[in-house]
Write a structure and sequence with these properties.
Layout lengths: L2 E6 L7 H12 L3 E4 L7 E5 L2 E5 L12 E4 L4 E2 L1 H11 L5 E4 L3 E2 L2 H9 L1 H6 L6 H10 L15 E2 L1 H10 L4 E8 L19 H8 L8 E7 L1 E4 L11 H7 L13 E4 L2 H11 L3 E5 L1 H4 L14 H14 L3 E5 L7 E3 L3
Parallel strand pairs: 1-10, 1-11, 2-5, 2-10, 5-7, 6-8, 7-9, 11-14, 14-15
Antiparallel strand pairs: 3-4, 12-13, 15-16
Helix pairs in contact: 3-5
The chain binds inosinic acid and magnesium ion.
The site of inosinic acid has 20 residues, from helix 5.
Length: about 325
């Protein structure tokens, strides 16, 4: 693994949290660095407990992993402390000095702006917080007294870890199609969500990355407004077992069948070296809990092969259930 970037391929909620928690338990990374902001929730099932993390990196499940929040990230102080308490990571989490702060006023601005409401934002206030950062009036982590014990130079720590051949995960949030640059503009979030942007938020150059893993779900979901090719009705989604609600906001997710053109775009723009496919059991129920590729049904294997053929990447991890270890691992 040495330095691996994990990026979402669709509209977020592909199951990055699950993939990261698996890698953390299996590969025992030294460092896991989170990017993005509080609008994204990563769902992790660990030892029978469900976590929906908006701030703490998913690598927390491996108790020796150092956890960092990147300079390009955006920190919600109350949510940070709530999750630090819940995950008990006080002694191993750090925030970059220059990460910007998202405040209550940003959330009110987000919820009352007619324009932002029309986009169906999460209401956390990330757009207004980023606007302030661009105006260079935002507070940063080093301005907040309660955060002093957690301050870190994340770019330096991460680059030094890579120099020392340690194992590093850079954790992306949301997905390519919510990217401010490459997504379904204007129905997008307030940042670029691609692998390059993940590196940039952390402060790691593109030559330092060994693997880019794009996470694709076996069907597609999106919350909020904006196009969703092949969208099916809620009734049909329930019938197929695809109906989901958002981990963070509780909103109903819209859904559609897997889309090869979108998968190809995600692999191309992220420069993916491999692909992780989640929720295969939601499309092929006979695959639930499988740990062995050969045990998958013929149809499920055909689907995986088609993804490999069309995207030109190997599907190395396949999710077959919610727990971190419900995975078929085809890596060498
Ligand atoms: P904002 O990021 O809250 O400004 O919302 C902009 C768009 O991105 C809306 O369509 C949101 O539903 C979507 N969005 C933001 N974060 C996530 C996420 O973590 N998962 C899925 N959709 C998200
Ligand atoms: Mg999510």
């Amino acid at each position: 693994m040495p330095c691996t970037v994990i990026a979402g391929g669709f509209w977020g909620d592909e199951g990055k949290g699950k993939i990261i928690s698996y890698l953390a338990l299996k590969d025992k990374p030294d460092l896991c660095v989170r990017t993005g902001s509080v609008n994204a929730a990563h769902t992790i099932w660990h030892q029978g407990k469900r976590y929906a993390l908006h701030m703490v990196p998913g690598g927390f499940v491996y108790e020796k992993c150092r956890l960092l929040i990147a300079a390009g990230a955006n920190v919600h102080v109350t949510q940070f402390f709530k999750e630090v308490e819940e995950t008990k990571v006080q002694n191993r989490i750090g925030i970059d000095n220059q990460a910007s702060i998202i405040e209550e006023k940003h959330s009110s601005q987000d919820k009352t702006s007619a324009h932002l409401k029309g986009l169906g934002t999460t209401g956390w206030g990330v757009g207004p917080a980023i606007e302030e950062r661009v105006r260079r009036t935002a507070k940063t982590a080093k301005d907040v007294p309660e955060l002093q014990p957690y301050l870190a130079d994340v770019a330096k720590e991460t680059n030094e870890a890579i120099n020392a051949y340690k194992k590093v995960i850079l954790e992306g949030t949301q997905g390519l199609l919510l990217s401010l640059f490459h997504g379904t503009y204007p129905y997008v979030t307030s940042r670029d969500t691609s692998a390059s942007a993940i590196c940039s938020e952390v402060g790691v150059g593109p030559t330092r990355i060994d693997e880019v893993m794009v996470v694709l779900k076996s069907f597609i979901t999106r919350v909020g407004t904006g196009p969703l090719p092949g969208e099916i009705s809620k009734e049909e989604a329930m019938r197929r077992g695809w109906f989901e609600t958002a981990a963070g906001t509780g909103r109903e997710r819209r859904s559609a069948p897997f889309n090869f053109e979108l998968a190809k775009k995600a692999v191309m723009i992220n420069g993916a070296t491999q692909t992780a496919l989640t929720k295969l059991d939601c499309v092929y129920s006979e695959c639930k809990g499988a740990k062995d590729y050969e045990k998958l049904s013929k149809e499920a294997r055909e689907f995986v092969k088609e993804i490999e053929k069309q995207t030109g990447t190997l599907v190395t991890l396949i999710g077959t259930g919610p727990e971190a270890l419900d995975i078929i691992d085809r890596r060498k």
